[in-house]
Amino acid sequence: MALPLKELADIARLPFLVLTPICVGAGAAVASWRGAPMDAGLLALVLIGALAAHVAVNALNEYGDFKSGLDMETQRTPFSGGSGTLPDRPDLAPLALRLGLSALALTAVLGLYFFWRRGPGILLAGVPGFILAATYTPWILQNRWLTLIASGAGFGAMVLGTEFVLSGTYSASGLFAALVVFFLVNNLLLANQFPDMEADRRFGRKNIPITMGPERAALIMGLFFLLAYASLAAGIAFGALPRAAAAGFLTMPLAWMVWRRVTRDHADMARLVPALGQNVMLTLITPSLLGLGIMAAKWLA
Fold first, then answer.
1. What is the pLDDT of residues 147-164, one digit of tens each?
2. pLDDT tens figures, 101-147
3. What is the pLDDT of residue 49?
4. Residue 4 is assigned to a structural domain of this protein
5. Residue-level pLDDT at 39
6. N or C: which end of the chain has fewer CB within 10 A?
7. Does a structural domain hold residue 59?
8. Does residue 3 form part of some domain?
9. In the chain, which stretches have pLDDT less than 70?
10. Residue 70: which domain range?
11. Which class for 293: exposed (0-12), middle (13-18), buried (19 or more C-beta within 10 A)?
C-alpha cells in the first residue's frame, strides 16, 4: 500500500519547514565569516538533523492535538490551528505518531554523530533542542512562560548548533544571530496563538494570550520585536557581527506594521489573518537578510 505522501507532507507542515534551512544558513554564515571551512557534507547532515527535529515537533503536535480532541474545536487559519489532516483522516493518526518518533530518533542519531565528530560542546545546543522537540506538545504547552520562549529557543539552538558543528566553537557572533532568531520566532508562535485562544483555553493550554489577555500579549510582541533588532544592533556595535548584517534592519517597517495590526485587530479574524501572514514573512526574511549580509561581508573582505 502506497504511503499517503500528500497527507504526510501536511502532517509535517511542509511549508513551515522553510524556516529551518534559513536558521541553519544563518549559523553557517557565522561559521564561514569566522573562518571555518565549509564542509558541504557536514552542513548537509546538520540540515537533515534540524529538519528532522522540526518535523518531529510538527508531527507530534498534530498527533497530540488530534488525540486530545483539540483539532476538532480549533478555528483553523492558514497560519495556526494545525493542518486539519487527522480530523479528515483519523486512520492516519498512528502514521503521524510514527513519523514524529522516527524524526526524533533521527535527530538523536545525528546528534550522537556530531558529539563524536566535534565533542561534548554540541550538547550545549543539542540537548535543549532535543528536549524541546520531545516535550513541546505534552508538557511545554501547559506553561505560559515555556510556551512563550520554547519555539525561539529551539530555532536559536539551530543557529548555535550549526555554528558549532561547522567551526568547533561557539562565539558571540553566533549568540547575537541566535538572539535575533529567538525573539522573532517567539513572536511568530505568539501571534499564531491568538486565533486558537478559545479552543486552547477549553483544553487546558496555558499561553500568554490566554493567561494575560490579548492586549498584554501584543505588548510582549512589541517588546520582542524591539529586542530582536536591539540584538542585531548590539552585535554590530560590539563587532561580533559585520556591518553588512545591518541588512536585517530592512524589515523594521514590516515589524511595526505587524505589531500595529495585531494590537488593533487581535479580535477580528478577517483583519488578523493577513497580519499573521506578514509576520511569517518577517520571520523568514529577517534572518535570511542577516545571513546574506554576513556572507557578503565574508565575500567582500
1. 899 999 999 999 999 999
2. 999 999 999 999 999 999 999 999 999 889 888 888 777 877 889 88
3. 97
4. no
5. 93
6. N
7. yes
8. no
9. 1-3, 71-76, 79-82, 301
10. 16-300
11. buried
C-alpha cell at 185: 520566532
> For the chain, what is the domain count?
1
pTM of the model: 0.94
Instruction: Look up the CATH number of the domain holding residue 189.
Output: 1.10.600
The contacts of residue 297 (CB under 8 Å, 6+ apart) are: 33, 242, 243, 244, 245
**Which of 78, 43, 18 lies closest to 287, judged by CA?**
18
Environment class of residue 278 by beta-carbon count within 10 Å: exposed (0-12), middle (13-18) or buried (19+)? Answer: middle
The residue among 55, 38, 52, 156 whose CA lies nearest residue 111 is: 52
Is residue 10 situated within a structural domain? Answer: no
Please give the grid coordinates belonging to residue 282: 518577517
Angle 123-135/93-118 helices, nearest 10 degrees? 170
Bridge partners (DSSP) listed for residue 77: 80
Q: Residue 205's pLDDT is what?
A: 76
